[in-house]
Each structure stands twice: as C-alpha cells, then as structure tokens.
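Q: Can I see a sequence and its folded structure?
A: Here is a first one.
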Amino acid sequence: MNKILMAEVNISEGTNLELIEKVKKSFIDEKNIEIVDIDSNVDHNRTVFTYKGEPSAVLNATKKLAKCAVDLIDMRNHKGSHPRMGAVDVVPFIPVKNITTEEAVEIAKEFGKYLGEQGVPVYFYEDAQEKEYRKTLPSIRKGQYEALEEKMKDPKWAPDEGPKEFNPKSGGTVTGARFPLVAFNINLDTYNLEIGKKIVKAVRSATGGYSCIRAIALELEEKKQIQVSMNMINYEKTPIHRVFETIKSEANRYNVNIVDTELVGPVPIYALRDVLDFYLRIADSFSLDQIYF
C-alpha cells in the first residue's frame, strides 16, 4: 500500500515574487511528490506551499524548501499582518493515506533535527510535543518574532532542536504532526479593527467560542477590509457552516456584512460535505462518490 503524507510549509514572504519562485524551484523537482497548492498573501506577507506524496520524498522536499527559505529570508526586515516567528514559520505534516500519526511525528522530528543543524531554533507542536503547555501553535508563537529572543532565555521555552540562542535572521520554526485543519478566512466590509476583534471573541476558543477554533482579526490594508482569519483545527467537531453563520450573525450586530471568504490550501472533502448538507439540504442518499474532477 502506498503511503501518502502531506506537508503545509508556511514561509514569511508573500510579496517578493522572485524570492518565492526561487523557493519553489528549490524543491519542485523532487520525485514522488505532488503540488497541491501554493498560496501567497500580500497583506499577510506569507506563502503556504502544500504538497503530498511518499513520506521520504515529502521529507526531502521539505528540507530543500526550508534550507532555501532560511537562506533567502531575513526576519529583521519582515512585516506582515499574520502572526509569525520565523522565516520558515510553521511546518505541519499531515497523514493522508496508509500512514499513522506516529510515522508523521517521526518525519517531523527528523525534519526538526535537520533544520536545527542549519542553525534554526526548532519547536515541536501538536502530536510531536509531549509537554502539554507547549503543544499548541499560539502558545509557542505568543509574542511572535519580536519576543522570541527574550522568550528563549526562559528554560521552559528552550527549543527542542537547534541552537539555544536567538537567531535574528531566521527566527524560529514550529513543526509537528496534526489532524488536517481548515484555514478559513472571512472578509468583512469594515475597516474597524475593534469590530473585528469583537466578532473574533464570539468564535475563538480562548474567549469562550468554539473549542476547535483559533482566530484573529487582521487589517487588509489594500482592500480596506477586516479579515477574521481562522484555523479550524477539527472540522468534525466544529463544521465550517456553523462558524460562518455565527460570524454572519455577529457582524449583523454592527451593521457589517461578509464580502467574501477564503479557503487557504487544501480542504478535506468531508469538511465540504457538511457544507453541502447544511446549505443544500442534501438527502442521505447523496454519496461523495458522485463528486468528480
């Protein structure tokens, strides 16, 4: 049986197209991988490379990509609306087919060791992390790049791999294995960040919302809009349509409307099945086998 692993590599560059193309070329020729999506966002100043394939090929491609990005990106010059703490910010490995979470964790740890040897402080998260207080991405990335130097001085926040001293050029990297999340953004027809923050509070786990939602409000300067940017860490427990309807209702309180939405990177078909069920009232007889490409 063929094993399929997916990687979603987030780098802190979304505006320099020449640099992004160099990063792409660094790993694109790796055999036995398939590019799923490449998404660059100017306001976030961030690019997400998503690809899948045979586990060892995915690991090799990720090493090449990360090495190139670390060489080219200088975090001392980085500005963007999305939280970040490193040139290669976060690298999750996601089991797709015939591969266990434990195997994905081993891949993540091998990648972390490699990147640490390149001089980058590396933190493991989610299923690759044993310490409960540093399992989630928000807890590790709290304070972002600007706070990382001071944070690393605390023994509780020593990196799992790589140097124990702050690397100002690369910043730090978070890697691990996790359940497939849905990166879902909702754009609002307001440029009032305070309204965005109030709406976020209604859905975000940390402020009493849905337990599987991590969310922040961001300013989209070019569009003069506010974005509710979310990571839905378990679409089975908290489906897309439920979050959409909650945000729509909360926005109405402030006479704000939803302009459009974004799904960043790949989306599990089962997550979209829930959307079909809710909005189209599809009968139980409908099967995902009816969908074709």
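Q: Show me another, different protein.
A: A second, unrelated one:
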Amino acid sequence: MCYSAQVVADYRKFVRMFGALMDIHEFARLFFERAEGASKAKVPKAMEDAFAEPNTDEERAIKAAIDRFNGAQTTKLEQDLFKQRKRLADAERTLQTKVTKAASESQRIATDKIAWTLGKLDDIQRAELKPRDSRIFPGHYAPVMVLENGQRVVKPMRYQCRIAGKPASYDVKYPGTYNARRDNLEGFWKPCFGYTHGVMLVDVFYENVSKAKFEGTLSETHDRNENVVLEFRPSNGELMHVACLWSRWSASGQPDLLSFAAITDEPPVEVAAAGHDRCIIPIKPENIDAWLNPDSKNLDAMYAILDDRDRPYYEHRLAA
C-alpha cells in the first residue's frame, strides 16, 4: 500500500513537462467549496502555492478563495490558542499550590496543543515551501493528469477513490481504496480499469512496515501492531509516473467528487526485503498517452504497460 507520498503538487510542472492544460473549473470548484464550508477537502500547501501569484481573473478568484479559507482557519486556530494558553495558566496556578493528577494532565495536554497550534499557524503564514508541503495521505488532494478529447489535462482529485455509483459510505467501509491492487483490476475496479486512467507524479513514497520485519527480528519480541514508517526513494532521483485509476462521483444534492487510487503490485526485491508487500507502479514516459487513452476491449495492452514499468532501485530509510 502507498499510504503516503511526496508528490508534484504544483499543476504548473505538469504544464511544463507534458504540455497539459489545467482544468481551471475543477480547481476553482475545489477551493470555492472548501472556502464555503461545503467541502472539508485537505489540500497540500504546495498545491495552494501554485496560485500565490495569479495572472488571470480565474486564478485571482482561486487565490481569493484560498485566502478566505486560510483566514478563517487562522482565526479558529488563534481562538484555540487563547483557550489552551488559559488552560495552561490555570493548571500551572493549581500546581503551584497542590500537585494533582488532573492539573498535571491538563498542563501536558495544553502544552502539546499549543505547540501543535503554533505549528499549524506557521504552516499557513510562511511563504517558503518545505518538502512536507507536497506530501499527501489518504483523503488529501493532488493533481492528476488525465486525457480529455486528445488533450492532457490536470485535475485536482482526492487520494481515495469513490467509484461512480457506489454509496458515500464506501469511504468508511473500504478505507483502503486509495490503492487499487493489480490482481483486482477486473474485480472491484472494473468500472475504472480500461476506462478512466490517470498519472500522478511522485518523488518519494512512504510505507508502514512491521518493525519486526524491518529489523529481521522475531515478531514475539515486538508488540503485534508495532510499526515503523519507511521512506522509499528512487536511487536515480527521477520522478515516478505512477499509474492511477480515477472516477467522478455524483449524487443528488451533493457536490461532485473527483477521486483516484494508485495501482499497486508485488514489490521489487529491495522493497520486500525492507518488510513491505506492495508497491506503486511507475510507468514509462513513452507509455503515458497509451495509458491515459485505454481501450476497454484490449485490457491486455494495459497490463502490458504495467508490466513494462520503470524499475528504479528504491533506497529506503526511516522516515523523519
């Protein structure tokens, strides 16, 4: 499973690399619905930053929606910060006269929440991007390239695919639908495979791995659920063009949802040796157009593209 990835979050790189068009309507809808409270979309800071210096009326409208949302978030965080600082002061006054479990716990919680809130405020306000600003998790949005009318187009999509026609409850019932297993492409993913294909650009991906497997020790020496997070990075330093499936979900009285899943397969030797049993599939650049323009009557050609994948060596380390 690719539980997290550092992606190319700036649509402009797709434009430069592939001559793709940006679907301005979908980007505007995403940010407007979030600003209006109609959506709880989680958007990486680097994806917002692409509109920091707008050049058109449409881009200025997107920038205004982003600013409105961030302004509301800042106000809420500042209010929370005031509450936690008061809670901390109250706890510390109590502890000066009598040490109690309740006051000590209140002091600890308030201190942790203050640090977290200050970090979130800093993330909103700082202008310089950091690598983590491009990192996505299930439920987060990322730019995905598709093909429409023969043209490469970049759309913002949620990283957890809700297939058209399925109930919204599938998000909870099937929380792993941010990955599409290759051995299930003609099963659960049949409505998408051969019909709606996409490509996501990934620098680094992260996996939860059993600590016992990673260390090569007996599982009995660890808690059964004890995991570590590993960072996997292609040793050649090149971007991965990750094969994806996507869908547009619609329902009466609800906003449309564009969402996607990354296809995964058996891992290469070095990923398996690190303790993980799945891996995303980076397709070759020369196969991108064929992948984005699938023929549902010739799925063998799609499997051939997945087989003829890029095979970089994945170096790994413990994630920071």
